[in-house]
Write a structure and sequence with these properties.
122 residues, alpha+beta, Hsp33 domain, four-stranded antiparallel β-sheet, two-stranded antiparallel ribbon, globular, protein folding chaperone, Chaperonin HslO, Heat_shock_Hsp33, Heat_shock_Hsp33_N, unfolded protein binding
Length: 122
C-alpha cells in the first residue's frame, strides 16, 4: 500500500484534521538507518507528524524541522519535511533494544524518555 494523507476541514476551515499512512516511508527509514523495532516506532511517529505538519506549509521553499531531545537511550530524533510530502529523519542512537512495557507493547516512551520537542519552521 502506498503512503497517503487525508486532510479534512470543518466549521468554515476553523477545524483541520489529518490522518496518514506512512508504512513505506518508515520502512525506507528503518532499512536506511538499520533501526531497532522501538526506534523504528518512535521515528515513524515523528515522520508521520512531520509529513502532516509539512503539508500545512505555504511555500515550496519552506521546511519544518521536528526535534525531540530526550533523556532516554535514543537520545534524540530529528525529522525534516516540506509541503510536498518529502520527509526524512534519523535517530541519534538507532540500535536501542528495550523490553516490552507492562502492556506487552514496544516501550517507545521509555526509549525516548522525558525531554523537549522543538518545532522549527525554515
Amino acid at each position: 500500500m502506498k503512503d497517503y494523507m487525508v486532510r479534512a476541514t470543518a466549521a468554515n476551515a476553523q477545524i483541520r484534521a489529518f490522518a496518514c499512512t506512512t508504512r513505506e516511508t518508515v520502512e525506507t527509514a528503518r532499512a536506511s538507518h538499520n533501526t531497532s523495532p522501538v526506534v523504528t516506532a518512535a521515528l515513524g511517529r515523528l515522520l508521520s507528524a512531520g509529513a502532516m505538519m509539512g503539508s500545512m506549509l505555504k511555500g515550496d521553499d519552506e521546511l519544518i524541522t521536528l526535534q525531540i531531545k530526550g533523556d532516554g537511550p535514543i537520545g534524540g530524533l530529528t525529522v525534516t519535511a516540506d509541503m510536498n510530502g518529502h520527509v526524512k529523519g534519523y535517530a541519534n542512537v538507532p540500535d536501542v533494544i528495550l523490553s516490552a512495557n507492562a502492556q506487552g507493547k514496544l516501550d517507545v516512551g521509555g526509549a525516548v524518555g522525558a525531554g523537549v520537542l522543538s518545532v522549527i519552521r525554515d
